[in-house]
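Reply to dn_fold:

You asked what the input looked like. This is it:
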Amino acid sequence: MDNESVLKKIEELMLQRGYTRYMLAKVSGISKSTITTIFNRRSTMSLYNLSKVCRAFDLTLSEFFSMLEGKTENGLLQDFPLDWWSSLPPEKRRQVTTIMRVVAELDLRGK
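and this is what came back:
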């Protein structure tokens, strides 16, 4: 998944909910200038800002990423590559686990 897909999905959610960029900025707590820069320059959105945007749409990061991939939460759990995980070296497992903890922590702070 690339940044353009993320931005398109956010724009789609904005359209569905009738949000303008100004409204998204207000509801998410991200400055209007940051929102404008992200969309006009198609800049990469940080995970922190994406978590704020997700909260504005009453979504978790997990739900948002599921929407990007067209999968339900249940589908994600069923598709988790356990055979791939078990083949990862310990250092890579630690890295993936750290990423998952950061994402979960960001979600918990926002709820």
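Confidence is low (pLDDT under 50) at residues 72-77.
Hope that clears it up.
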